[in-house]
Amino acid sequence: MTKPIRLNEQLCFSIYKAQKQFNHFYSQALAKYKLTYPQYITLLSLYEHGTMSVKEVGQTLNLDSGTLTPLMKRMEKDGWISRKRSAQDERRVDVSLTKKATDMRDEIYEHVGSCMTYLRFPDEVYDAIKAQVDSVDEHLAAIPDEELQ
Amino acid sequence: MTKPIRLNEQLCFSIYKAQKQFNHFYSQALAKYKLTYPQYITLLSLYEHGTMSVKEVGQTLNLDSGTLTPLMKRMEKDGWISRKRSAQDERRVDVSLTKKATDMRDEIYEHVGSCMTYLRFPDEVYDAIKAQVDSVDEHLAAIPDEELQ
DNA sequence: ATCGAGCTTATTGTAGACGATTTAATTAGG
DNA sequence: CCTAATTAAATCGTCTACAATAAGCTCGAT
């Protein structure tokens, strides 16, 4: 008697698939820089805000140190960032961009920007979809965990 | 002179965040069944289509055997599915639902369905957002990899 | 009958994601 | 001023995700 749940009618599944498509899109677009998508958004956040602690980067990306520590170690090994314990507060690790990262900044902006043109969405459509997805995110975030048990 | 890319203006980032919120939402809603979201959609697909090979399940979910084999082994251990090599074609592994899974079907539909009401989107809004996200997915899927290099 | 092309599943290696725990450093309270 | 609580990062365990590779099977052509 219960209404069946069809996968292709579920918004969660559409978002799940779209996220994987974006991941594939960026893995192609970023291959020449050997950056993954999570590494790329870490870089974007540092371009935007400058040197930050691991915690602060995590707040901009909704990621915790369990994800960021190994990711940033890989980015450090690849020469994008440097990590240094703060002298003022030795609990913090400050993450800053290397010369390579600042030198490549405009090229990366330009290359990724040109890749985005292949999406071929007019700005208004792009903005409208983004606003709706953001509202889904906010609605979900507002649900207390207890409601779901 | 290149236009900076602001994280919070990127559709990819909105979708990335929304996908993680949905993951959290379902991890709460499915906790009582000890199912993860990828396990849940595997179950949904089997409820919908009945016994299938690993390959066919993968086609409904856009996942390959590298993801599905270990995931399904866990679901088998937890008593949701059984895996058996096909007698007709011994390359295939047929995946079918256990009695537990069919017995729980309506309860799971109902519980997840009731959790969805907390999203509080009218059907038309839900459908409109879903259609737009699907179109993003399709647009991305249509871009040949070579364009992005 | 058998050989090989092509298909299906399994395995491996790398990278994310996140909850839970641990360790170290800082702050606050009595 | 010292201990308790808080905070930050790292670590660990578990679960995805996917590319690349391996292994085994089927079927058709010879």
TrEMBL record, chains A, B:
Q: Which InterPro entries match?
A: HTH_MarR-typ, Transc_reg_Sar_Rot_HTH, WH-like_DNA-bd_sf, WH_DNA-bd_sf
User: Where would I find the HTH marR-type domain in this sequence?
Assistant: 8-149
Q: Name one Pfam family in it.
A: Staph_reg_Sar_Rot
Which Gene3D superfamilies does the entry link to?
Winged helix-like DNA-binding domain superfamily/Winged helix DNA-binding domain
**Cellular compartments annotated:** Cytoplasm
Record key words, sorted: DNA-binding, Transcription, Transcription regulation
Tell me the PANTHER family matching this sequence. Answer: TRANSCRIPTIONAL REGULATOR, MARR, TRANSCRIPTIONAL REPRESSOR OF EMRAB OPERON
* Protein name listed in UniProt: HTH-type transcriptional regulator SarZ
User: What organism does the record attribute this protein to?
Assistant: Lacticaseibacillus jixianensis
Taxonomic path: Bacteria, Bacillati, Bacillota, Bacilli, Lactobacillales
